[in-house]
Amino acid sequence: TIASHTRSFTKSSSLTDEEETQLLEELLLAKEVRTPEALESFFPKHDLARIVKAARVLDGRGRASALTTLANFAVLKPDYRRNILLADHGSITESISRMLVGIEAAWSGGAYLPVCEIEGIVSGTHLLGSLAITRGEVGTEWRRRIAQNKEVRRVIRKFANGQNESAARAARRALATLGVNEWKPKVAGQTGLRILSIDGGGTRALLTFEMLKHVKKLMGKDIHDMFDVICGTSTGAIIAASIGIRRKSVEECEKLYRELIGKVFCKGPMATPKMVLTRAYYDSKILESVLQRECGKGVFIDSTAEEGMPKVCVVSSKLGTSEVTCHTFRNYTYPVGSESRFAGTPDAQLWEALRASSAAPTFFTEKLLNGTLHADGAIVANNPTAVAIHEAQSIFPG
Q1: What's the pLDDT tens digit per position in 251-285?
Q2: Residues 197, 234, 317, 340: which is the catalytic one?
Q3: Where is motif GXSXG found (predicted)?
Q4: Which of 88, 199, 228, 376 is catalytic?
Q5: β-bridge mates for residue 233, sequence order
Q6: d(CA 223, CA 243)
Q7: Are both 347 and 214 inside the same structural domain?
Q8: Which domain holds residue 113?
Q9: Has 376 been annotated as catalytic?
Q10: Within a domain: residue 164?
């Protein structure tokens, strides 16, 4: 089996035939990993550094396969991003950078790019984007170095504006994770940022829909095509994400919300006993099922692969041992040197973030995410206007 694949992979001249065969064996096994559970069982039986080495020393299809495998690992288990950065003496960053610059130069020179090189661009850029949101000091330092590399930024921008849609999507996502936020007017004549802040308030959201429909009628455009930054709390978070990230019309959002009211806010005969046992009158599982159905497995930052995506954040209340603080789930990061006063998460699943933001006390139970309890964002900012303005200033400093 290995021999039949060998001719499809190009190796570095520094590799012996035996070393090449060993790398290919490791790579072919790694490509079979499809689930987080399979990834857990794959390591520590196998060496992650060898997969990273394959991305460094192989060319063509071999390199593309290694990068695709690593990009898959980074999605399946975000905690592995740090391991990827540190494996093989930290070679992955230079490998991706050299590959992207080299392929772009050949492409610009009129060279024909085989399918494997396109795969290398897509997987390498996607992996770069995932590594840029690695938590901890290792991820922060690596992100700073890459974000300040003008040549790499130039190449990624070029791919983002290119004709190959798969490469463009991966590049737009990578720019977002690196905090490369370039403002472009949403409408003709626009001279400044347009920010939409949507309050919480349960069934009062129906009033919000009427106001948004009026704005849409006046402007003749969908809401997501009008605003640069959209921020919401609680029920406003569901509206903000539905309009901004899911790009639903106001009418579609209203239909979804009326369904939520009918299914979720319905007390049964066990409501009072349920309140005693769980501190919540309503069934949180029903809310979660509707949100999961609407959002799927979408992750906030992944939405930036779409062209023209507005910056969207939703607010939750982070419950600590001594204080309650504001937390933002968002589909953007900040430019190097710019910070927000609010802690935040760019790679949370969309449905989980909305569930956390709408976990109103006595209505629904709190939501546990990454070891931290989150409750309704209305506790800290029912009207998130100040949060939205601060985030806009952090996204587009100066």
Answers
A1: 999 998 888 877 776 555 444 444 334 445 577 88
A2: 234
A3: 232-236
A4: 376
A5: 315
A6: 7
A7: yes
A8: 17-178
A9: yes
A10: yes
